[in-house]
Prior knowledge:
CATH architecture of the largest domain: 2-Layer Sandwich
Family: Belongs to the pseudouridine synthase RsuA family.
Distance between the termini: 10 Å
Organism: Enterococcus gallinarum
Shape: elongated
Order of helices and strands: HHEEEEEEEHEHEEHEEEH
Largest sheet: 9 strands, mixed
Strand content: 25-35%
Number of domains: 3
CATH topology of the largest domain: Alpha-Beta Plaits
Number of strands: 13
GO molecular function, one term: RNA binding
Number of helices: 6
Structural class: alpha+beta
Enzyme class: isomerase
CATH class of the largest domain: Alpha Beta
EC number: 5.4.99.-
CATH superfamily of the largest domain: Pseudouridine synthase I, catalytic domain, N-terminal subdomain
Amino acid sequence: MRLDKLIEERLATSRKEMKRLFQQGKVLVDQQIERNPSRNVDSRLHEIKVAGVLLQTRDVYYLLNKPAGVVTANKDHQHATVIDLLQPEDRQATLYAVGRLDRDTEGLVLLTTNGQLGYELLHPNKKVPKRYDVIVNGPVTAEDVAAFAQGIVFHGGVVCQPAKLTIEMTSGRRSFVHLEIAEGKFHQVKKMFLARGKKVIALKRVAIGPLELGDLLSGEYRNLTQFELESLANYFR
C-alpha cells in the first residue's frame, strides 16, 4: 500500500498535514526516516510509525489456480471470472490480477489489493521470470531450444528476449516442455511456438518469480504465506 494513502486513511490527515509529517521526519519505516510518500509498504514486512503511531496495512494477497474457461477480469457478462472463484467475503472491488492469462490458459494468478506490487512484478525492466508447462503439437527439437535461447522473432519482426526452453518429453505427435520467460507480450507463448511452426495445445503457468503453484488444485486459492510475502520484499518500492 502506498505510504501516503495509508497515512491518509488511518490518521485522516489532510494533504497539507501529511506533507508536514514527511518534512518533519515523523514518518518512519523500519525505524528509518522515510521521505518518499509513494513508498509501497505492508505491515507484515515493515514497521510503520507516523508521529509515534504504529500503523497496520490491510492488503490481501491470494494465489489462485485459474482453470481454463475462466477469464482474468473482475467482471464479464459472458464468462466466469477469477473473482467469481473467490468466497463472497474475499471479493473486493480493488482486487488486481497480476499477470493476466488467456481464457483457455490455466495456472497461477496472483490477486491482490496492492496494485503497486503488481506493477513492479510486471514491469519489463524487472525481468521477473514466469514459468509455464506447455503441450505443443509435433516434436520439439534442440534447434527449437537454441532458437528460444537466442530470442524468438515474431512474424512482423518483433524480437523476444531470450527464453529457457526445456524438453520434458517429445514425440512425432506432441511434446511436453517447460518454458521460462521474463516478459509478457500479448499471447507471447503461443506466438513463440507458432514462429517455430508449432501450435500450443495446452498451457499452464506454474510460477511467477518466487511464487509457485505447487499442488494447489484447479479453481482453488489461498493466502500467501508469510515466507512467500517476504520473498516479494524486493518488489516493495
